[in-house]
Amino acid sequence: MAGNDNDGMRPDWAQKDFYAVLGVKKDASADDIKKAYRRLARENHPDSNPGDTAKHDRFKQIAEAYDVVGDPEKRKKYDELRRMVASGGFGGGFGGGGGFGSGGQGINLEDLLRDRAGGGGGGFGDMFGDLFGGGFGGGRRGAGRPRPTKGQDLESTATISFTDAIDGVTISLRLTSDSACSTCSGTGGKPGTKPHVCAQCEGSGFVTGSMGGGFSLNETCPACGGRQLLYDEPCPTCHGSGRGASSRTIQARIPAGVKDGQRIRLRGKGGAGANGGPAGDLYVTVKVSGHRVFGRSGDNLTLDVPVSFDELALGAEVKIPTLGGSPVTLRIPAGTPNGRTFRVRGKGATKADGSKGDLLATVQVQVPAVLDVDARAALEAYRIATADKPLRSNLFDQAQS
């Protein structure tokens, strides 16, 4: 058994400068460490650098460093370990063969881990095991407590009206999520039967899997699903999984100004967590119905305003609607071209900061399909009056140049 106690352990880790790997100072704040890690992880992620083995190795180093100094407790013990090694507290640092010190006078890492696995309390063996989260095999101290697990993230779709998207609205959503089986209360066993300790994980709920390259990682036991116990007769409802489906209705607030296709995250509105873990999140994709009159461009509303030729030529004041508010007067200067857009400030959609976008009103000349006698006479008189100013006089000349 002792041969597996230090499975995956790297004695040289105490001599690695994880701060240098992340490019931060030893007294860097947690936020600075997180920012450095995210930036380096994006730059070196294997998905963004296919075939670049150097960046793949660099990504592993970055992840390894952040796993330690990104955790307050691990960082504290790592710093203590570095100070002890630097001051010669182990007889000159790490020696060969997995030991500390040199000349046979140091402390052997395998012995430390073997003592920890055998139940020897306290000492550096506990600190080293706790420092790296127990992910290197060896003793199972504390392994009898299942880890808190975050609940399932859920997805839903909601269709709302154009006006509700502008003003915001509270809607009801019917959700179905994973939960503890109602028959066995999540144990996975047939009611009335007794459990026994899982033989595969020895009651810890986890097994150690190899990641290659000397790394190992605790994984949920596939036999008991992390529940630590097994039943000879599985629950007839969930077939031993301990999980079932539950339905519930929640009230979700859709913020003002939401756009069609926008995905909203509602924290803690997803599935229930396990073993005291937090609830998952709910992601709602919003579909916005169209409007008969208004359109939308970002945080602005759009409106086509039908006008007559004389209103553009002579100028006019026309009333136009606003969404959910009183009409406003649009002043059209004489000689306004068709298709010009006027901006009415503060009559648009709600922005993220609470302010309002604008209403963009575009004037569009409407040509009457039928003219009465007086209107036709007036237009014919206008045609005669402007006959000496043909609009297309230079069209063909410009087309040839």
Structure description:
The strands form six sheets. The chain has a four-stranded mixed β-sheet with strand order 10-11-15-14. With 401 residues, the chain is of the alpha+beta class. The protein has helices at 18-22, 30-44, 53-69, 72-86, 109-117, 123-131, 162-167, 309-314, 373-385, 395-400; strands at 154-160, 169-180, 195-197, 206-212, 215-220, 229-231, 243-254, 263-266, 282-288, 294-297, 300-307, 316-322, 325-332, 341-344, 359-365. Strand 10 and strand 11 form a beta hairpin. The protein has three domains: 2-131, Helix Hairpins (Orthogonal Bundle); 147-182 and 245-290, HSP40/DNAj peptide-binding domain; 294-372, Urease metallochaperone UreE, N-terminal domain (HSP40/DNAj peptide-binding domain, Sandwich), CATH 2.60.260.20. Helix 2 packs antiparallel against helix 3, helix 4 (72-86) packs across helix 6 (123-131) and helix 5 (109-117) crosses helix 6. Helix content is 25%, strand content 25%.
